[in-house]
Amino acid sequence: MKYINTFREGERIAEVYLVKSKKRAETKAGKPYDNVVLQDKTGTIEAKIWDVGSAGIEEFDALDYVYVGGDVSIFMEKPQLTIRRAKVCQPGEYDPTDYLPVSEHDIEQMYTELLGFVDSVHDIHYHAVLEGFFKNPEIKKAFCFHSAAKSVHHGFVGGLLEHSLSVTRNCDFFAKNYPILNRDLLVTAAMLHDIGKIKELSRFPENDYTDAGQLLGHIVIGAEWVGEVIRTIADFPVSKANQLKHCILAHHGEMEFGSPKKPALVEALALSFADNVDAKMETWKETMSTVAENDYGWQGFNRFLDTNIRRTES
Predict the structure, then answer these.
(1) What are phi and psi of 90, to 5 degrees?
(2) Could you say which DSSP state residue 29 is in?
(3) Strand partners, 34
(4) If you average pLDDT over residues 58-84, what whole number do you get?
(5) CA dihedral in degrees (227, 233, 239, 244; nearest 10)?
(6) Burial state string for 159-198 with b = 16 or more CB within 10 A and e = fewer than 16
(7) At what angle do helices 238-249 and 124-134 cross, to 10 degrees?
(8) In this structure, what are the phi and psi dihedrals at residue 69, rounded to the nearest 5 degrees?
(9) pLDDT band for position 152 (50/70/90)?
């Protein structure tokens, strides 16, 4: 398998890839061409079909697995593929695990650890909310398979679970270090802070925004969903419900980053820090994963980290 992250300028490619998207466009001269995004488990690459309908290029659609022949060039400092041949593959002619990025950690082990945090919450109301989500087989299936983002960080199968568990670990540490924090509230909010991403993003291989994701976003979706589960629990205190939903609504920390409310509770503040730390550490890790270990050169401006970055010299 020739993986996308190994593509180099001037290479000729002949391999099967998953078509993430395909859109028709026109050149300035009015000639049609196709914009295609190909995917494997290492990433994506933009590709072009300049001779639409030419011999050797079969018709194919998004989410097809396609045998592609083409040449790698560099455009706007990024690899791009010019497709010269294309043929739709049939099941059995490819291994789907080559095309979906997956967490490097064992998914079942991570979920078992998450359930351990559920059991560690002693408040009966918060514990009931967590069981309503994480003891539900259908939610477990979706939670374990979903990514935490379309891009930026944890954009792989198991990413939502990996990120949520890491944020929960951070919050557990905060609760031990800062006694002013209500641990049960904080840990509950940590596990549920991104639950709305199950409905914000479609399943792999699409991993794209749903209508609800575009119109509402995962923060609002998550707060509403938690509210729905709370309403199934008898005698759930309104104050606890509001505090938990506030933590979810404020977990991005600032309105400019998508939170409809700024943290007004210390637990909401701690959650926003824990979430931000994990997202940025993972972004750094993923960025450096494509850089040689002995490469200490500056890697350029990273939009999410808002700075130019490089590897630490040993």
Answers:
(1) -105, 155
(2) T
(3) 24, 49
(4) 94
(5) -50
(6) bbbbbbbbbbbbbbebbeeeeebbbbbbbbbbbbbbbbbb
(7) 50
(8) -120, 130
(9) low
